[in-house]
Amino acid sequence: MSAEPIGASERRAGGVARATGDQQFIADIRLDQMLHVKLVHLDCGHARIASIDSSAARAAGDVVGVFTAADLASPMPRFGPVYNDKPVLAIGETKYHGQPVAAVVARTKEAAEAAVELVRVEHEVLPGVYTVDSALDPESPLVQEPELRADDPRRNTNVLNELHFGWGDVDAAKADLVVDNVYEFPMVTHFAIEPHGFIAAPEDGGVVVWTPTQNPFQMQRIIAMVLGLPVAKVRVRAPDSGGAFGGKQHPKYEPLVALLALRTGRPVRLLLTLEETFQEVRRTSCRIHARTGFKTDGTIAFQDIDSDFLMGAYADIAERVIAKSNYLACGPYRVPAARIAVRALFSHTAPSTAFRGFGTPQVSWAHESQLDDAARSLGIDRVEIRLQNLARKGEAFVPGDTPADGDWAESVRKAAAAIGWGTPLAKGRGRGLAVAIKASATTGASYAIVRLHWDGSATVLAGTSDMGQGARTVLAQVAAQELGIPVDWVSVVMGDTAAVPFDLQTSASRSTVFMGQAVVRACQDIKAQLEHMTADLGLEATGNQVDLLRARFGEVRGEVIGVGSKRSEHMPDHPLGGAPSFYEFSCSASEVEVDDGTGEILLVRHITVADVGKALNPQHVAMQDEGAAVMGLGHTLMEHVMLDDAGRIRNLGALDYRIPTTKDLPLDMHSMVVENADGPGPYGSKGAGEGGLMATAPAVASAVTEATGVVIRDLPLTPERVWTEIQKSRGGGGRPP
After folding, report:
1. CA 261, 240, 669, 9: dihedral to nearest 10 degrees?
2. Cα–Cα distance between 483 and 456 in angstroms, integer?
């Protein structure tokens, strides 16, 4: 055991099992008499369903049933994390490429796959909404039926909501330079190594659902609503996921498998292929029009931002993504006047959902590129213009809200030094630096139970999901620190709504702060009980818990149970429903070399610096930030979902959708932290793990501009796009070699 568990890089709980293949993922779970489900799709984005003939499939061997909207409950249940708009199966129309119109249930996976091919769906391909422009066009077809939001004045448009934030008087603001640009951020998918999978079985007059969800208790509530059951009759078991990144945060096909389990009376399992997962989850794409005013010394005079975010066919959690990110669309800067307008748009595409960074990569792409443009125009160093405008610690950079909770300039200086800012560069090379800020959880509740056993060991019960961020390890470290026992004497139980207390969600980098504090308070509850126990027994406070417990419980044995919670209440008058508990601030710096003959970008060095308050497990933080950086390099350099005219995803799967491999990584990559113990979590910690990708795109793009002289405002920075812009800048043309 380390002298102090907190601040030590304790070995990750479950790490060996993951490395050796012993980890039990959703696909490894087998139940007696389990049936297999496969989905029937149409090969288009938007279609009207005329009829479904499943007779041949129903007659096939080992097929138990084929279920369409007509075979399930009427009216068809709809669900969602905010709006109940998504039907369990398509009703009348398909709204996006891959939306299922029927589900085949069979005794074997092979029989289900074969029967899917026998289902005949007569349909008419309809015009679709696949771009921002078409979503805003009043002549475009409606994605969502107006009756689903009968009281909404926007019901006859493809705008779900229009949000406005800001302060000061933008129109009266005086500026010496106005930078006016439009930025595009594409659709990208999460690409978790483990595709989505779901199992459900009847249990005790209700249902139990296995899903690697990040939010077991939200899942429990929504399934209970769909089935018309009390929450107590729905049990959600959440095995650790093989990657999630927000894609497994909210319900997808869990309501369907729960319905099928109750309908067949047997366990059922649905495992999506990677291609089907592509069709179900993605990040919001957007177009951002930014006008930024500057004084001649580089000081920001105003920000005027108008954005359109393409949500997809159903709302999912996208409206919240759009709201939180655009609330901080001006970045972590001191801005005297701001006007922010953003529209959440429906489209006939896969629903967008939570994705690591929660909209911050999109807005930072715009606000950081704006600062670079201004620095070039005004002849100011790109690092200096950021240091000049960054909010100081304790400053309310959004008037009336949570003030800056860190010395953010320290992170910038650390990144600049690490990248060698200002030192000579070889021809064809450039450096860039960018910052980003994300609002943390605004409301929520986390509860923890800690059981101190008679031998001095402890069990922590927590509703957090460990989706790769190492929550089990950190919570064990917190309990060990508080109780004064070795980390390997602590077990952490999570992932079962029947066994652990409530937690709102595992997202927003909130677990260390919220659940960590709940565990601290549960341990404090135990320590208070131990003090009373010592006094009741007339013993001296020796600090030997084992002797005390044995004296108290004797041969009958027993344990001390502590309960703790951390809550942040809803604030109805706040634009986000509550003030951010902390900010996740990060800085990325990159050095690149660009081959102007091919447009290829070589990543020479990449640095991330995160303001974490206190790194409870330094290695965990480092690996999370480096993993995030790799994801950020993916959407910066290569990743984008491509649609054809019929709304079909053209690059489904691992071969046609590129993510970074080991050959694409920077030659030199480092993650660093700033620790000032100024966070609201245990021991001054803040959330971490998303920052590494939030400012990647503008940092790399800035370096590419310095290396080539060209400015690119559409992601990704593919070799073809870079080469084309270089040729344009030189008055050339043609196609890249």
Report:
1. 170
2. 9
Q: Within 10 A of 697 (CB to CB), how many other CB atoms are there?
A: 30
Which residues on adjacent β-strands are paired with residue 559?
453
Amino acid (one-letter) located at 63: V
Long-range Cβ contact pairs of 146-153 (< 8 A, separation 24 or more)? 148/78, 148/85
Q: How many CB atoms lie within 10 A of CB 402?
A: 18
Question: Token pair of 140, please?
Answer: 């475009």
Residue 349 binned pLDDT confidence (cut-offs 50, 70, 90): very high
Q: Which of 609, 631, 635 is nearest to 622 (CA)?
A: 609
pLDDT higher than 60, residue 1: no
- Nearest alpha-carbon partner for 78 in 1, 14, 144, 34: 144
Helix, strand, or coil (residue 683): helix
Domains of the chain from N-terminus onward: 15-22+444-568 (3.30.365.10), 31-126+196-271 (3.90.1170.50), 285-441+577-729 (3.30.365.10)
Question: What is the arrangement of strands in the sheet containing 206-210, beginning at the earlier edge strand?
Answer: 63-68, 102-106, 35-40, 268-271, 197-203, 206-210, 234-237
What torsion, rounded to 10 degrees, do the Cα atoms 258, 260, 266, 269 define?
Answer: -70
SS3 398: coil
Eight-class DSSP state of 436: E
Q: What six digits make up the tokens of 249?
A: 């945060």
Q: How far is CA 423 from CA 371, 420, 595, 605, 667, in A?
A: 21, 6, 21, 14, 18
Residues 665, 675: Cα–Cα separation, whole Å: 27
What's the sign of the alpha-carbon dihedral 84, 90, 93, 95? positive
* Residue 428 and residue 422 in contact, taking contact as beta carbons nearer than 8 Å: no
Q: Residue 696: name the closest of 594, 612, 608, 595 by CA.
A: 608
What would the mean pLDDT of 275-282 be, rounded to a whole number? 95
- 2 is written with which tokens? 């380390």
Contact between 696 and 636 under an 8 Å Cβ cutoff? The reply is yes
Beta bridge partners of 371: none
Query: What are φ and ψ of residue 71, in 5° steps?
Result: -95, -10
Q: Are 501 and 519 in contact (CB under 8 A)?
A: no
Q: Is-contact 371 382, C-beta < 8 A?
A: yes
Partners of 712 in beta bridges: none
With beta carbons less than 8 A apart as the criterion, state whether 308 and 159 touch: no
Q: What is the mean pLDDT of the segment spanning 322-351?
A: 98
How many other β-carbons are positioned within 10 Å of the β-carbon of residue 410?
15
Produce one character per residue of 608-641: b if its CB has 16 or more CB atoms within 10 Å, e if not.
bbbbbbbbbbbebbbbbbbbbbbbbbbbbbbbbb
In angstroms, the CA 678 to CA 682 distance is: 10
99-121 pLDDT per residue, tens: 999 999 999 999 999 999 999 99
Cα separation of 421 and 407, whole Å?
A: 20
Residue 736, pLDDT > 80, answer no
Determine contact, residues 102/68, Cβ cutoff 8 Å: yes
* Average pLDDT for 428-457: 94
Q: Which residues pair with 104 in a beta bridge?
A: 38, 66
Q: How far is CA 397 from CA 106, 321, 391, in A?
A: 58, 21, 6
- Specify whether the CB–CB gap between 616 and 7 falls below 8 A: yes
Nearest to 200 by CA among 258, 135, 263: 258
- Picking from 303, 318, 305, the residue whose alpha carbon sits closest to that of residue 135 is 318
Distance CA 384, CA 310 (A): 34
**Integer Cα distance of 314 and 310 in angstroms:** 11
Query: 0.90 exceeded by the pTM?
Result: yes
- The yes-or-no verdict on residue 2 having pLDDT over 50 is no
Record the tokens describing residue 464, joined without a space: 């957090």
Give the C-alpha distances (Å, rounded to integers) separating 220 from 123, 234, 614: 35, 6, 33
| Type of residue numbered 552 | R
Mean pLDDT for all residues in the chain: 94
Q: Kindly state the greatest CA–CA separation across the chain.
A: 90
Which three-class secondary structure state does DSSP give residue 306? strand
